[in-house]
Specification:
Largest interface: A-B, 42 and 42 residues
Radius of gyration of chain A: 20 Å
CATH class of the largest domain in chain A: Alpha Beta
Distance between the termini of chain A: 57 Å
Largest sheet of chain A: 7 strands, mixed
Number of domains of chain A: 2
Oligomer: homodimer
Number of helices of chain A: 18
CATH topology of the largest domain in chain A: Rossmann fold
Amino acid sequence: MSDIPYKVYLSEKEIPTQWYNVRADMKNKPAPLVNPGTGEPMKLEELFPVFCEELCRQEFDNENPYIDIPQEIQDFYKMYRPSPLVRAYCLEKALGTPAHIYYKFEGNNTSGSHKLNSAIAQAYYAKKQGLKGVTTETGAGQWGTALSMACAYLGLDCQVYMVKVSYEQKPFRREVMRTYGAKVTPSPSMETNIGRAINEQYPGTTGSLGCAISEAVEAATSQEGYRYVLGSVLNQVLLHQSVIGLEAKAALDKVGVKADMIIGCAGGGSNLGGLISPFVGQMLRGEADYEIIAVEPASCPSLTRGSYVYDFCDTGKVCPLAKMYTLGSGYIPAPNHAGGLRYHGMSPVISQLYDDKLISARSVKQTEVFEAAEMFARVEGILPAPESSHAIRVAIDEALKCKETGEEKNILFGLTGTGYFDMVAYQQYNDGTMSDYVPTDEEIAASLAQCPKF
Amino acid sequence: MSDIPYKVYLSEKEIPTQWYNVRADMKNKPAPLVNPGTGEPMKLEELFPVFCEELCRQEFDNENPYIDIPQEIQDFYKMYRPSPLVRAYCLEKALGTPAHIYYKFEGNNTSGSHKLNSAIAQAYYAKKQGLKGVTTETGAGQWGTALSMACAYLGLDCQVYMVKVSYEQKPFRREVMRTYGAKVTPSPSMETNIGRAINEQYPGTTGSLGCAISEAVEAATSQEGYRYVLGSVLNQVLLHQSVIGLEAKAALDKVGVKADMIIGCAGGGSNLGGLISPFVGQMLRGEADYEIIAVEPASCPSLTRGSYVYDFCDTGKVCPLAKMYTLGSGYIPAPNHAGGLRYHGMSPVISQLYDDKLISARSVKQTEVFEAAEMFARVEGILPAPESSHAIRVAIDEALKCKETGEEKNILFGLTGTGYFDMVAYQQYNDGTMSDYVPTDEEIAASLAQCPKF
C-alpha cells in the first residue's frame, strides 16, 4: 500500500476562496439564453424579475476566470467542507485492479449531496438583495433539502414544488425539508395557473421536473420579494459547484497524483461541471490532458442520443430557451426509472464542451448501476445515491479494463451523495424486480420534434 | 472568532492504535456477570458457547489499561475515521452563549452512528475464530446496520433479529441491512423456541429489545459456527468505543482546549462509555477533573429512577445476570416513546461510575429533545439522531446557564449519529402530535419487583 492515506483532507484554510469560471477559458462559449418570444438573446435585466441580480451577472459572466466567494458563504462551507478525497483501496483490492481509484465524496452533509454548494450561494445572494424568500422545484429531493438548509441558516422563506410522485414516494425527504422550515407542495398543484392547467389537461398526472419548474417560476414572479432558484443546468450553478473540482485537484496535487481519467454522473450537469471545471480549464489552456467521461442513464440519454438545439427548460415554457443537448422538454423517463438524473436537457456549458469533444459520454442501464452501487456499499462502506452510482459503474468498468491491460491509471470520480432516501429503489434491486428501459429512436425523435425551431 | 477551526481533524496516523480500558483504572470494578442458575460469577469458559473467545477475554479483563487494535480493524477504521471534532460556532452564536461548545460527530458513515466502532471489532474476532457468522438483535436499526456493514466487509454471515415494531415502521433500515447482505427477521419470530413462546403468550406483540436478544442468543447457540454479538451494555463494547473519547481528547489537546463538562446520551451506555473513558481515566488517576452528565429519556430513566441490582439482560432470561442500574427486564417504554435509548438497564461500567458519583445523570422529555434537535439541525446543518439529541438538549441547557452566569465553559458532547431513518418521529414533532410520557413510581416499582433476588 502506498503512502497516500485513505482520505485526503485539506485543511480549513485550503477551502477555495474563489470559484473558478470555466467559461472564461472556453474558446467556444456556451450559447446564450434566448427569449422565447423574440428569439433574441436574453438581456441581463430581462432575467431580474425571475432570478436574483447578482446571480444573473454570474450567469452572463463569460470573462472572469475567478470570482470571490463571499465570506459568509465561506463560513457556511466550513460547516461541511472540505469534503474528503478518498483513495478507494478496498474497491481496488476487491476488483484486483492495478488502477488507482479516487473519489471526491460530497455526501457528508444532511442534504446528502453536493447540492448544498450552490444552495447556500443562491440563498446568500437572495438575502443580500433583501428578498423575503425563494422558490424552487425538486425531484428526488436533494436540491430541495439543500435549499431548505441554506434558507433556514439565513432566515429566508423557502417554497419547494416537489414532483408529485416523489412527494408521495419519499415522505421522509419531504419531512427533512419541513424540519428545516420549508413549505413543500406536490407538483402539479392547484396553487398556480400552470399547475391547475396541467392538472386539467392531464388528470391524475404524477408530475415532472419541467412542470415543477414552471410552477416555481410562477410562484416567484407572482409574490412580492421572491425569486426563483435552480439547482442545476445553469452556468451559475456550475460556477458554485467548481469548489468540488478545485478541492479535488488541490488534494490530488497535495499527494502528488495526476488523474488520467475523470468520471462524473450527469443529469443537469451540476456535479459533473463542478468536478471537471478546473481540469477542463487546464486542458483549454494547454497545460494538461485528461480523459473525461460523463455518465448518464440509458433511460434519459440527453448527451448520447439527444440533439444539440435550443429547447424549453420547463414544461410550462415560461423560462428562457437554452441551447443544450436535449431529448425535448416533453421527454419523461419511463416509470420504471428509479435512478435519478431525469432532466431532459444538459447544462449549456457541458453541452458545449461535449460538442467540442473535450469530454465524452456514456450511458448505462439502471440494473448495472445498482449492481455497482451494492458492490461499492459493501467494500467501501458508503451507501451511494443512485445518481452517484452511475459514475461508480463506469469507474469500475474502467478499472477492470486496467486489470486486463495492466495499466496503473489514476481514476477520479465524483461520489455526489448518499442513498439513504432511495431505499425503495434499492429494495427493487434487492428483490430482483428492477428492470431496464431504453427509449426507442422513434420515441426520442417524436419528443425532439416538439423543440422550438431556430 | 478564535483560531480553532470549525472541524478539528486528526491525521490518519493519529487514529488510536490501542483501545483504552477504563476498568483498569477503576478502584471499584464493575460487578461480574453472574450465572442465573447458580448465582455464582460466570467463568470465562462458560461464556464461550455464546460469545467469541477473544471478546470474552476482553469482557473479563479488568487489568490491562491498553489493548492493541488489530491492524485489520485499524484499516477498517481508516475508511470512516478519524471522525471530526466540531466547534459549534453557529450554535454558540444562535444561543448567544459565552460557552464554547464542541461535539464529536460519529455519524459520517453509512451505519449513521458510532456503532460501527464495535461492530467491526466483534466481526473481526468472530472471523479470526473461524466462525461462519454472527447473530444479533437491533431496535432502531443502527447496530444492525453497523454489524451488517462489518460482516459484508469481512465475508461473514449476519443474522439480525429486529424488534417487530421497528421492522414494520422502518422498512428502509431493514433494506440497508439487506443491501449489505444480512438476513433480517422481525422479532418475536416463529424461528426460535423463545420467539414462538413469546408469540403464544402475547399474541400480536410488537416485540422488545430484550426479546430480540433472547432470540438472537438462541439462534447463535443452535447453529454450528455461530456466536452472538451485542452492540451496547457489555464491557467489551465500551472498550471498543473508547476510540471516540481517545480521538476527542487528542483533538482537544491539539487545539489546547480542556473540556469542563462532557455530555453524552445513554441507553445501554456504549457511546457515553466510549466518549468519557479517557477523561474518566484521568479523574480516576487524579490527573484532571470533569463534570460528566449522562442524559437519558424521561420515559426510560434507568440511572435516575432505577435500582442498582442484578437483573436479567433479556426477556427470555437466557443471558447471564448483570449488576446494573435497571428498571427491570420487563420494562418497556410507553408506545409514544420515539426517541431511542429504550434498554431497561445500563452498562455495568457506567452503573458503577455513576454509583461512585464520578458521573451524574439527567433525564429529559422527548418533545424537549426534538425541539433541541430541530434547532441544532437548522443552525449546525446536521440532522441529528433522536438518541444524540438527548445530549444536544442538555448541552444547550448548560450553554444557556453559561449565558446567565457569563461563564466561558468548554462543553463537549457526543453527537452519536444522524436521524435520516427517524423521520417518522420528526414528522410527529413537526405535526405537533408528539407527546411525553413519564412512568409513575408504581410502574417502575412493579417492574423492579421482577428482578432476581441476590
